[in-house]
From TrEMBL:
Organism the protein comes from: Arthrobacter oryzae
Keyword Endoplasmic reticulum listed: no
Name assigned to this protein: Uncharacterized protein
Signal peptide location: 1-31
Taxonomy, superkingdom: Bacteria
Pfam families in the record: DUF6454
Region (Disordered), start-end ranges: 32-51
């Protein structure tokens, strides 16, 4: 992602100021006369504060020697295309994916500020029951913006960015009511967004750009409040989640070169990992490699990633394989017991 270009925010005309307050780790977002503003679920968020806080503490005990066991595989028996992000509500599993109809093609030299053609595709948000049965296929996107990214559930809504499949482009931020499955177009951004998280301390949205090389923060009207460079080059974050208080846990991947003897000229391998970021200081608090692989041979943190904790016991859900790879898309569960840091 180029850091030389500054992108503004396209917002709808709005004369209403957003009031967002953090109350017991939740957000009360109000906009007079608007039916497109999210409402916080105080009961749900408050009930999860203990578990979510333990996630931050437990992850601080994860290192390269942590033993992760794969405890289950949930095969999805419908076309899933290229999976991107995953989120869990009390009643549903949400999985974002992109269906590529025409791949992008790199230009020899940039044209009109782009390094490749837009390609064509369809953005999907699959809604499943807890057994992985498809309940609804929600189509998201407009025009060249068809690529969903990493998603996040805030206790009431699922947040989904849908971008052009090229850097320095544009994206739409959607929120989907996790109960009614109603879709609301929140605002547009003049950049590619690969993932999004709601900071429930202040009601703001945090997004990462192409390759997660840069982050930006917006209010719910799409006003950009800040932007900063990713201080970490270990992996590119693909799917993230909010962790109280004001932290963000991400999973991701990077492709690194192999020695020619290990696979021939141009060969690469997938390095996976996880990272916790402080949303106030914007520092990476802890990052850890993760090298276990899917049925198709992808590192497990390739794309969809979410984690929960019960005390020092961690459970990670990932879905690294596309629908046309290996055994198709499987939601893999890994578990580990963390040793709290001294």
């Amino acid at each position: 992602m180029s850091t030389t270009r500054t992108r503004g925010i396209l917002t709808s005309a709005a004369a209403i100021m957003l009031t967002a307050a953090a109350i017991s780790g939740t957000v009360a977002a109000q906009a007079a006369g608007s039916h497109d503003q999210p409402r916080a679920n105080n009961t749900e968020s408050g009930s999860r504060r203990g578990t979510a806080t333990s996630l931050a503490e437990a992850f601080n005990g994860v290192d390269r020697n942590t033993t992760w066991r794969q405890t289950s595989k949930l095969k999805l028996n419908f076309p899933t295309y290229h999976t991107e992000g995953i989120a869990y509500s009390p009643d549903h599993i949400f999985l974002s994916a992109v269906q590529i109809i025409e791949p992008t093609t790199k230009f020899q030299t940039p044209q009109n500020g782009f390094d490749r053609t837009p390609g064509k595709g369809i953005g999907h948000l699959f809604v499943m029951d807890k057994a992985g049965n498809l309940q609804k296929d929600i189509t998201l996107g407009e025009g060249d913006m068809y690529h969903p990214g990493g998603i996040d559930f805030d206790g009431t809504n699922v947040w989904v960015p849908v971008a052009q499949y090229r850097p320095d482009s544009s994206a739409i931020i959607y929120r989907v009511d996790a109960n009614t499955l109603d879709v609301h177009k929140q605002f547009e951004v003049k950049d590619h967004l690969g993932g999004i998280v709601m900071d429930k301390e202040n009601g703001h949205l945090i997004g990462n750009t192409w390759g997660s090389r840069r982050f930006a923060e917006w209010d719910l009207h799409g006003k950009q409040l800040s932007t900063w460079k990713n201080p970490n080059y270990f992996i590119d974050y693909q799917d993230c989640q909010y962790v109280p208080t004001a932290q963000m846990l991400c999973g991701g991947i990077t492709n690194l070169p192999q020695a020619p003897a290990a696979g021939g000229t141009g060969a690469t391998y997938e390095l996976g990992g996880m990272a916790m970021m402080d949303l106030k200081t914007r520092n990476v608090l802890r990052d850890v490699p993760f090298q276990q692989w899917s049925t198709a041979g992808h590192v497990a943190t390739r794309n969809p990633f979410k984690m929960t904790a019960d005390g020092d016991h961690l459970t990670m859900k990932v879905a690294p394989d596309n629908g046309d790879e290996g055994n198709g898309t499987e939601i893999l569960t890994y578990e580990a017991t963390a040793t709290p840091a001294k």
